[in-house]
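Task card 7
Instruction: Convert sequence to structure tokens.
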Amino acid sequence: MEELIKIAAVVVATAVGFTIAGVAGFGGGVVALPVLVWVFGVREAIPILSISQLLSTASRVWLHRDGINWPVVRYFALGALPMSVLGSFIFISIDTSVLVRILGVMMLLFVVYTRMPIGRDFAMKLWGFAPLGAATGFGSAFLGIPGPFAAVFYLAYGLAAGAYIGTSSLGMGMIQVPKLIIFGADGLLTLRVLLLGIGLGAIAAGAAYLGKLILRKVPEKVFPRIITTLLLVSGIVFLVRG
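Output:
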């Protein structure tokens, strides 16, 4: 019975999280990661999530391909790719209990961040996506999730709806590639991890399509509240479990 509950929790968290990501551009990892850590442990959870994120972002990129802003993608990749490599090397060498506590602290910091009035009068410059990519790439590789903070900067640049989702998803998808190469070289991509990642990735890809269908039909203010609540709960859980 316990195994069935865990399987159901993983499937539901993946479907809900990546549906939110399909609408809001983020949230898949935030929702799914705590459940994956609970069921599989942090060493398997982050590689599994990386595979599913790669498939999910690929589907979102395809669904919103017409609105992709390529200059933004290039600057983002300039910072993101090398820092995702660095973050991955740190991940494979750090103690897991420390990592879980760092995840908890980072999630609580994201809650504080989302409550700040940043972005109200902020105009994002194109060159700013290089350092944003660096921070996002490192956070994604080291902590498993980039956090929703990047969305603020995409929106501040003037990207919205499909253009924002397609552009940010392509950037996030590229980050997963060097992560998975390093995870594979370190032996973290076992057959079990690959199968779980692909299976959850298929669910995530379907959820991305569902997200596109409901895009703009749900008030935008609902999603930040959902993410803030999930970050708060997940951060506390990680601190307690660490």
